[in-house]
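[stage:ingest] chain + small molecule (magnesium ion)
[stage:ingest] validated
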Amino acid sequence: MKFLSFSIDSSEENEADGCETGFGFLDSNGETVREIYSYPYDGAAIEETGRTFSLDSVTLLAPVEPSKVVAIGLNFKAHAAEFDKELPKEPMLFLKPSTSVIGPGGSIVYPSHMSYRVDYEAELGVVIGRRTHEVSVEEAADHILGYTCVNDVTARDLQGRDVQYTRAKSFDTFAPIGPWIETELDPTDVLIESYLNGEVRQSTSSSDMVFNVFELVSFVSHVMTLLPGDVIATGTPSGIGKMKPGNTIEVRIAGIGSLVNTVVARPEGADV
Ligand code: MG
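[stage:predict] done
[stage:export] tokens:
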């Protein structure tokens, strides 16, 4: 199933329910959104509201509002090699704040007041489905709701200058997520790609990960409790590169779909 979050133009709605945003899943026809009251976190049943919308008529939002995005550094062998880094002996974690999250079609704002080098990083995102604390690798699958596309946007110059990754990874709009959460996916061998202005830049299977999805969920859960809707960005393959205002960047993952965003300049006069 594909779970998604959306907004609708309320002027087209009977105001009886008055709801402008909602959750839903994509019907098997691939064209109809069937609204639900909430995601089936903690194994809850899926309850439909009875309303349906055509996919064309809704605006997709980030499919989750995570309390945190836990990101993994250097988790692809060829990516570690392109930075001339040794493979990590255990997962390398950092956080992206909830305020960096944007949805499909949202704009990545280039932080030109601080950075001159902003990169895309296509990543497989794991969406947590239930409270997850100190679970084993074998238990991890039961704690995953599904998978989505993430762009771990990075101010590469600041990453090099700061000891911590926080500033480089945390600007508002630096965590595009979407277009939806796919629950039917074997994450061990899926193609992860990025396209800059339509040209392929990254294209590697998740089988190149140093630590797989289940190992990561288990490892992170022994550091911090993961909550429903939290996202783990599982690391990017080789081929990262820079973006500029006006560029379109797409993260495409086989079996999930495409997350497309544009890069825009900061508003005139916003620079300090
Ligand atoms: Mg990354």
